[in-house]
Write a structure and sequence with these properties.
Layout (H helix, E strand, L loop, with lengths): L5 E5 L5 H8 L13 H9 L4 E7 L2 E9 L7 E9 L6 H16 L4 E6 L4 H10 L2 E12 L2 E11 H8 L2
Parallel strand pairs: 4-5
Antiparallel strand pairs: 1-2, 2-3, 3-4, 5-7, 6-7
Helix pairs in contact: 3-4
This protein binds coenzyme A (COA).
């Protein structure tokens, strides 16, 4: 039986506690970045970042932070994705909904994600949404004081349209 519907909305300052707790969940420190509150507040207000919260049954289940939202270059980065309960399909449902927001609300042509190549769970989830692995971007993430390689994945508008007949 299907669970409660997932709803997605833009984050507000009232969501910062949830966002900061989620990006700090045990085990996530090796997978995803985290910011202090002031940095999150700045991102909420800078007009370039867009943060979406997913809710199921009224409870927040994860967030997606985008950068270069609605940029004239029409390339948007998926900067951070995290859910409270991984491995149950929430991540792909949430990202899929946020991707639909991006393609419907802006003229973005390319959505791009960088992830650590050994994060196979994230890769599987992104592939399920339609992202395609392009290759390794060497030393592109300054993370925990070291430069790490990232796997670059992308989803182009025509591919998304074909997948969603939209
Ligand atoms: C990445 C993340 C958002 C994905 O969301 P999710 O809800 O866990 O993902 P889903 O359940 O939709 O899909 C996970 C897929 O990975 C698979 N998987 C789970 N653990 C895995 C593992 N250790 N190795 C390989 N695949 C794995 C699952 O079987 C599933 O694939 P399938 O349905 O095709 O079989 C979530 O795991 C998360 O928040 N992780 C911690 C933070 C993080 O890594 N963020 C991404 C940084 S780029």
């Amino acid at each position: 039986m299907a669970g409660p519907a997932l709803t997605v909305s833009r984050a507000s300052e009232g969501d910062l506690g949830f966002i900061m707790a989620t990006e700090r969940r045990p085990g996530y420190e090796a997978l995803v970045g985290h910011w202090e509150e002031a940095r999150h507040r700045a991102a909420l207000a800078d007009g370039s970042h867009a943060c979406f919260i997913g809710r199921s049954g009224g409870m927040p289940i994860g967030f997606v932070l985008l950068r270069f939202w609605n940029a004239p270059e029409r390339v948007t980065l998926v900067r951070r994705v995290a859910v409270t309960t991984p491995g149950h399909g929430d991540g792909r449902r949430l990202l899929s909904a946020v991707v639909a927001h991006a393609f419907r609300e802006t003229e973005v042509h390319r959505l791009q994600i960088g992830l650590f190549p050994d994060n196979l769970r994230a890769r599987r989830a992104y592939e399920a949404v339609g992202f395609v692995a392009e290759g390794i971007s060497r030393g592109s993430a300054f993370f925990g004081g070291v430069f790490r390689d990232e796997l670059v994945m992308s989803l182009l508008r025509p591919e998304w349209k074909a997948l969603n007949r939209g």
